[in-house]
Amino acid sequence: MRIAVLGSGGIGGYYGALLAKAGHDVSFIARGAHLEAMQQRGLTLRTPDGDSTIPVTAVADTGTVGAVDLVLFCVKSYDTGPAAQALAPLMARDTAVVSFQNGVDNVQAIASVVGSGAVLIGVVYNALQLAGPGLVQRTGGDGKIVLGELGGALTERVQQIASAFQQSGVAHQVSTDIHRVLWEKFLFIAGVGGVTALARSGIGPLLASPGGRTLLTTSCEEIAAVALAERVPLPADAADRAVEQAATLPPQWRSSLARDLEDGRRLEVEALSGAVVRRGLKLGVPTPIHRTIAACLSVHQPFASAK
Prior knowledge:
Blueprint: E1 2-6, H1 10-21, E2 25-29, H2 32-41, E3 43-47, E4 50-54, E5 57-59, E6 70-73, H3 80-85, E7 96-100, H4 106-114, E8 119-132, E9 135-149, H5 156-167, E10 172-174, H6 178-191, H7 193-199, H8 203-208, H9 210-229, H10 238-246, H11 256-263, H12 273-283, H13 288-298
Helix pairs in contact: 6-9, 6-10, 7-11, 7-13, 9-10, 9-12, 12-13
C-alpha cells in the first residue's frame, strides 16, 4: 500500500516504521529537527528488545507525496484542523484516513474536510513517545491497535488495512463498535490521565491515597455520565474498570498529558477534560472534576502567558 503518516511522533513513527519495514511505500510528514534526522539517518525504534533503524522517506509537505491508499492521521488533537486541511494532496477517490488520536472530536473535524466516508477510527493501546529527533521509544509490551468503520461495517477496505498491519507484525483488532472502544479509551486517558497531570503524580501514590482513589473514580464517573447522556453504550461499571486498569500499571506511570505538562509542551487538555466539560454543559451533566482539571492545566499552556 501507499501510505502517508501525518504526525510522525510516537504513534505515527512507530506504526509507520513497522509498515515501511514490511515493504509498504510509506511517506512520513514531519517538521523541524525530527524531519531532518529522519532524512539524514532514518527512523530509530527503541524497544525493550533493543534499537533498530529503518531508512524512511520523510518530507515536510503533503503536496510532495501525492495520492495514497491510506493516511495514518496521528497529530496531536490541537493540530487536527490544520492537518486536516493539508490532506487534500493525499486524497484519491478511495483513500482511507484513520485517526489514531486522543479525544472524541477529531473524526468529525477530519470528516468536515474530506467527508465522513473517507474516515475510520483507530485506538492505540501502547506506550509510545518521540524520545528525540528521529527516535521513537516503546516501553512495555508490543501493545495493540483497534480500528473500525464509523458505521461498524466489516468493509473490504478495513480488512485490507488490517491485512497490512498483519503483514507488518502489528497486533490489531477490527471492531464493529469502534465508537464504544474510542470512548472507553477516552474515559481512561481523560479520567485517569487527567488526574495524574493535575496531581503531578504517578498513578501509584494516587491509588494508595483514599482521597486520590476517590478523585480518580469520580473523574471517571463524570465521563461515564456524559457518555450515558450521549447514548454511548459503555458498560455500567466502566468507571470502576478504568480504575482497576490503572491499578495494573507501574506505580510511576503518568499520562502523556502529565509528561507534556512537566516538559513544558502544549497540552491536549481541551480535547480531553475540555471536551468533557463542553459536553456536560450541553447535556446538563455536572463535571466539576474536569472543570477543575481544564481550568488548572490551561494556565500551564505554553502560550497562556503570552495572552
